[in-house]
C-alpha cells in the first residue's frame, strides 16, 4: 500500500490517505472488492469549501455520465453543483448527509462519504499523482483565494 501523504495548504495540512484513489475534481475513491466504490471529498476540497451546511442530490441512483451534475452543495465559501467524477452507476447516496452535511467537515474520509458507485475507476489517480496535481495548481488556487478575500473586504 502506498504511504499516506500530506499536502500543505499554507499552514493547513490536507491529509491524503495512501490506500485511496483520487479524482481531479477533488474527490477520493475507496475501491471496493465487490466493484462498488465509495466516493467523498478530499481534505483539500473540504479545506477550500470550509463549512458545508447544505447538500442536495439532483438525480436518483442509476447511470451517470462523467461530469454530469448529480447534486448541489452550499458551503461557507461557495454554492455550486456536484458532478460525477466518472461515468458509471450511482448505487446509493449517503442519505445521512441530508440531515447532517456537517459530517463532511469532521469525518470526510469516514462517515462523510458522498456516494457509492459501480464503474471503471482505473482513470483515478494514486496518492502520489494526486499530490502532484495539487502542487501543480496550488499557486493558481492561492491567487483565486486571495482574490475572493480581497473582494470580500471591498
TrEMBL record:
Has keyword Endoplasmic reticulum?
no
Instruction: State the InterPro entries in the record.
Output: GCV_H, GCV_H/Fam206, Single_hybrid_motif
* Superkingdom of origin organism: Bacteria
Gene3D superfamilies referenced in this protein's UniProt entry, alphabetically: 2.40.50.100
What are the GO BP annotations of this UniProt entry? glycine decarboxylation via glycine cleavage system; protein lipoylation
* Entry GO terms, CC: cytosol; glycine cleavage complex
Sorted alphabetically, which keywords does the UniProt record give? Lipoyl
Pfam families on file: GCV_H
The record's annotation in SUPFAM superfamilies points to: Single hybrid motif
Please identify the protein, giving its name as recorded.
Answer: Glycine cleavage system H protein
Amino acid at each position: 500500500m502506498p504511504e499516506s501523504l500530506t499536502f500543505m495548504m499554507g499552514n493547513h495540512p490536507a491529509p491524503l490517505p495512501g490506500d485511496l484513489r483520487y479524482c481531479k475534481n477533488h474527490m477520493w475513491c475507496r475501491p471496493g472488492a465487490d466493484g462498488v466504490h465509495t466516493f467523498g471529498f478530499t481534505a483539500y476540497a473540504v479545506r477550500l469549501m470550509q463549512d458545508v451546511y447544505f447538500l442536495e442530490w439532483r438525480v436518483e441512483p442509476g447511470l451517470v455520465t462523467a461530469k454530469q451534475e448529480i447534486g448541489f452543495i452550499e458551503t461557507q465559501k461557495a454554492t455550486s453543483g456536484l458532478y460525477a467524477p466518472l461515468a458509471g452507476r450511482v448505487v446509493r447516496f449517503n442519505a445521512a448527509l441530508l440531515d447532517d452535511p456537517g459530517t463532511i467537515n469532521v469525518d470526510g474520509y469516514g462517515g462523510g462519504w458522498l456516494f457509492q458507485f459501480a464503474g471503471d475507476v482505473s482513470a483515478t489517480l494514486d496518492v502520489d499523482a494526486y499530490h502532484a496535481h495539487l502542487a501543480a495548481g496550488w499557486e493558481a488556487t492561492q491567487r483565486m483565494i486571495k482574490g475572493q478575500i480581497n473582494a470580500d473586504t471591498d
